[in-house]
């Protein structure tokens, strides 16, 4: 494993964490919130152990560990979410994920998003081929709190809404030909998006903040509230709609 590329390592670790998470869920020892807590704990321990073994000089930012400010002085920082979509995992659903990404000088450089319940892993070492565009657009949104910007864009361009759980599952839905657009503005952290953004970008999708600016990682404040992932050919329309909705949301139409 020490000789692996960063991208292959991200894939291997995400797969291993996914296997452990499936085993914990299948054990019958936990239920409800206790199941989610157990999954977070064991997956985080596995990821930290493997990274410490093979990339001991790299820093780590994990949702499930105390933030170590030493990362701010490092060029290479692994940004991980051991279990993205804890609620979905605890409910026995399939729309949860494992995020393992490497940011170099603030930019997502390698990453993997495992969807263990679906038996799939997407990673930057093997970029996915984008499925052909369909005749109608689909927008993946939160199953509990869809972003107002997402609903507005969907209405303006005639996209159907596809409710889904974790951020990783939503982003990979585009690569799985279940959606074409993912707009989020309801608040996220760096570990929610770093791996999905790395994988989506490697596969040729547009990735940015909802104002079109780049997503920058390993900042002191890890709150990174919004993102846009979509096909390049519709990115301009979506960004225009988001920018103009605040001015006159009732009259905005797709350009």
Automatic annotation (TrEMBL):
Top-rank taxon: Bacteria
KW Hydrolase (keyword) present: yes
Entries under Pfam families matching the protein: Inositol_P
Record keywords: Hydrolase, Magnesium, Metal-binding
Keyword Glycosyltransferase: no
Gene3D superfamilies documented for this protein: 3.40.190.80, Fructose-1,6-Bisphosphatase, subunit A, domain 1
Signal sequence coordinates: none
Reactions the enzyme catalyzes: adenosine 3',5'-bisphosphate + H2O = AMP + phosphate
GO molecular function, one term: 3'(2'),5'-bisphosphate nucleotidase activity
Protein's recorded name: 3'(2'),5-bisphosphonucleoside 3'(2')-phosphohydrolase
Species of origin: Sphingomonas japonica
């Amino acid at each position: 494993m020490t000789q692996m590329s960063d991208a292959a390592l991200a894939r291997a670790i995400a797969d291993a964490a996914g296997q452990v998470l499936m085993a914990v869920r299948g054990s019958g020892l936990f239920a409800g919130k206790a199941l989610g807590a157990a999954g977070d704990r064991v997956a985080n321990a596995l990821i930290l152990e493997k990274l410490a073994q093979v990339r001991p000089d790299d820093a780590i930012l994990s949702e499930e560990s105390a933030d170590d400010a030493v990362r701010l002085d490092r060029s290479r920082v692994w940004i991980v979410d051991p279990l993205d979509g804890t609620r979905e995992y605890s409910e026995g659903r399939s729309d949860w994920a494992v995020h393992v990404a490497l940011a170099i000088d603030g930019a997502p450089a390698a990453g993997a998003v495992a969807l263990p319940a679906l038996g799939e892993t997407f990673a930057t070492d093997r970029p996915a081929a984008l499925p052909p565009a369909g005749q109608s657009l689909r927008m993946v949104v939160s199953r509990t709190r869809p972003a107002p910007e997402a609903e507005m864009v969907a209405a303006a361009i005639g996209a159907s809404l596809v409710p889904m759980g974790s951020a990783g599952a939503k982003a990979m839905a585009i690569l799985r030909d279940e959606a074409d657009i993912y707009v989020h503005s309801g608040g996220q952290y760096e570990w929610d998006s770093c791996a999905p953004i790395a994988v989506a970008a490697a596969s040729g999708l547009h990735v940015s903040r909802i104002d079109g600016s780049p997503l920058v990682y390993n900042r002191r404040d890890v709150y990174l509230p919004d993102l846009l992932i979509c096909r390049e050919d519709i990115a301009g329309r979506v960004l225009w709609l988001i920018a103009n909705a605040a001015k006159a949301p009732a009259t905005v139409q797709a350009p």
